[in-house]
């Protein structure tokens, strides 16, 4: 979807779009970081046409083993916080389809509507997540991701 968006909106060939996409992910953590900076793309329009347009229901489905993993966590001892580079609507759709949305105490997301917006791997994004989760010390955090 992102490459198609780049082809259409920046008038690029498929291979140019794919390269630009990867370059921006490498340099900014998200393709949209470079798109906003160098091409003045409206990030909310991008979200609407790319992430929110994905037919997630046909791509992902509930995973009972994932739900069991989360249900086995003692929530009296551990706070589960969703931390993503996606905009909140995309993150909320994904965890709802996976049927794990009730396990999270909160969400820190890449706020495309803020200027400049923060995203992983910027240190300030991790500090934002800690602040929103009410965590003072990095040693009290355990990040799981790919």
> What share of the residues lie within helices?
40-55%
Total number of strands: 2
* Domain count: 2
Structural class: mainly alpha
Order of strands in the sheet with most strands:
1-2
Low-confidence stretches: none
Which homologous superfamily in CATH is the superfamily of the largest domain? HAD superfamily/HAD-like
Question: What's the overall average pLDDT, rounded?
Answer: 94
CATH topology of the largest domain: Rossmann fold
The H-and-E topology, N to C, reads as: HHHHHEHEH
CATH class group of the largest domain? Alpha Beta
Q: Report the biggest beta sheet as strand number plus sense, adding barrel if it closes.
A: 2 strands, parallel
Rg, alpha carbons: 17 Å
CATH architectural label of the largest domain: 3-Layer(aba) Sandwich
> What general outline do the C-alpha atoms trace?
globular
Instruction: Count up the helices.
Output: 7
């Amino acid at each position: 979807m992102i490459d198609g968006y780049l082809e259409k909106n920046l008038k690029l060939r498929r291979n140019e779009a794919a390269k630009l996409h990867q370059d921006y992910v490498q340099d900014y953590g998200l393709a949209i970081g470079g798109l906003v900076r160098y091409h003045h793309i409206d990030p909310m329009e991008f979200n609407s046409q790319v992430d929110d347009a994905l037919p997630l229901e046909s791509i992902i489905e509930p995973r009972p083993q994932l739900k069991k993993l989360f249900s086995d966590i003692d929530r009296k001892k551990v706070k589960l916080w969703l931390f993503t580079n996606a905009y909140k609507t995309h993150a909320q759709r994904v965890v709802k389809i996976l049927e794990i949305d009730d396990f999270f105490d909160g969400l820190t997301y890449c706020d495309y509507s803020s200027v400049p917006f923060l995203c992983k791997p910027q240190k300030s994004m991790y500090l934002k997540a800690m602040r929103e989760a009410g965590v003072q010390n990095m040693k009290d955090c355990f990040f799981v991701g790919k």
